[in-house]
Inverse folding.
């Protein structure tokens, strides 16, 4: 009965049925959170773990049917590793290898030339959770752990691990959160009114409304910017400026589907209390599970600003569990490269991911050099603070989103024959631009920065 209704709904909306199932599943998280608040808030931890496990499993079955066993196997194996292997480096390495190999095998056996919503989508979120769990347990045995807030002093129970893994607010698309945060939720500590359900309905509805707004915008405009148009002779016959503008607008609207999912999921976490982040100057914050800084995302003219505003929890997970743990290398650039390499592999096996994240590294490196150049040059600093800045802002935004789009093309088109065709159609604009920019910085610095400041910058 449900399947024909979903199929009809998907056809009427002009969307794939898996996408409709996913959005419905995210929205169903709100009734689950209300059940928890109204009927289960004061129940023992065992009851809450069971509720979170069964509700998450129900969403998994609704979306992926019997393939839910993949996640159950990985959760069970992770628990056995913690219980049987103890708080050791071997546990951490075994967890990392097993979870990543399982995920990559899933990518390999289910891969197509399109981005499909299948069981590997929530599984990549779960993979980070379980690897992070082993690291947090390991940190709990170190006297001077730099990850004290997430460190686990004792091995969690099987039911606790399942509840943490399948929690309905984060199982499908994130956000990432630690077992310590989940334990605080179950212990009724994540609330602005001690001992009572949190007053989080209004903040949750705000995020839901914002997510719904982005969904409407995406549904209205994305049909005008389909991925498939890039691969047509008609697109290649368009003027160069048209191809660039199309690519820019395509990227902007294409990212809104991610923004929609993360905002709706965040609202579920806020409603349950997991999004509570304490109070500052008497004002309660609900951003512990924020995956988007919407205002920054929409207004920043910098690539770093977009990265800082987008998929925040995953970036924080990578910074905490990869970048900072590479400190022993003594080289931030190498730590950054290894972090991006991990994220590349974690996303999948397609060549498009490699190109996307390598472009990200190149973009950020060049942007940092230009920011330093502007800060050190009196002429450029004066220009940036002049009445011409609004015009400069528009130009900067255009450049920013054009090359964000150029990097996003491989990420979305996946295979080299597709993204290479698009990059060729714009004459490898992104690669040429950043190569020229990188090579020109030393000459611009010599021309625009006083000798004294150049010497000081070199010492720094």
């Amino acid at each position: 009965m449900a399947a024909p209704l979903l199929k009809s709904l998907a056809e009427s909306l002009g969307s794939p049925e898996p996408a409709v199932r996913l959005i419905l599943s995210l929205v169903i998280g709100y009734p689950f959170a209300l059940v928890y608040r109204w009927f289960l808030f004061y129940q023992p931890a065992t009851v809450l773990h069971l509720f979170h496990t069964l509700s998450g499993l129900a969403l998994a079955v609704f979306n992926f049917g019997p393939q839910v066993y993949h996640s159950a196997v990985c959760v069970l194996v992770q628990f056995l590793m913690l219980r049987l292997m103890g708080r050791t480096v071997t546990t951490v390495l075994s967890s990392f290898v097993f979870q990543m190999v399982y995920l990559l095998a899933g990518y390999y056996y289910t891969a197509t030339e399109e981005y499909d919503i299948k069981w590997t989508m929530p599984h990549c979120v779960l993979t980070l959770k379980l690897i992070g769990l082993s690291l947090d347990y390991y940190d709990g045995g170190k006297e001077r752990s730099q990850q004290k807030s997430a460190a686990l002093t004792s091995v969690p129970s099987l039911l606790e691990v399942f509840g943490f893994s399948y929690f309905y607010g984060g199982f499908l698309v994130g956000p990432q959160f630690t077992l310590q945060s989940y334990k605080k939720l179950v212990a009724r500590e994540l609330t602005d009114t001690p001992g009572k359900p949190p007053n989080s309905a209004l903040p949750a509805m705000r995020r839901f409304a914002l997510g719904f707004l982005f969904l409407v915008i995406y549904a209205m405009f994305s049909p005008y910017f389909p991925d498939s148009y890039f691969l047509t002779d008609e697109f290649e016959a368009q003027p160069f400026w048209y191809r660039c503008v199309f690519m820019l607008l395509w990227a902007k609207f294409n990212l809104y589907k991610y923004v929609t999912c993360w905002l709706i999921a965040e609202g579920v976490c806020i409603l349950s209390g997991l999004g509570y982040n304490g109070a500052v100057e008497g004002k309660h914050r609900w951003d512990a599970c924020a995956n988007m800084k919407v205002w920054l995302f929409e207004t920043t003219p910098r690539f770093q600003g977009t990265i800082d505003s987008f998929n925040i929890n995953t970036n924080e997970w990578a910074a905490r569990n990869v970048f900072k743990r590479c400190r022993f290398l003594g080289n931030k650039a190498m730590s950054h490269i290894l972090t991006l390499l991990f994220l590349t592999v974690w996303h999948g096996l397609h060549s498009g991911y490699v190109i996307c994240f390598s472009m990200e590294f190149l973009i950020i490196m060049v942007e940092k050099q230009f920011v330093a150049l502007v800060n050190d040059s009196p002429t450029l600093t004066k220009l940036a603070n002049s009445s011409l800045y609004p015009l400069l802002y528009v130009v900067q935004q255009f450049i920013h989103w054009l090359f964000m789009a150029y990097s996003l093309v491989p990420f979305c088109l996946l295979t080299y024959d597709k993204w290479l065709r698009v990059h060729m159609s714009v004459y490898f604009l992104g690669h040429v631009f950043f190569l020229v920019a990188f090579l020109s910085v030393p000459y611009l610095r010599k021309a625009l920065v006083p000798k004294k400041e150049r010497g000081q910058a070199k010492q720094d």
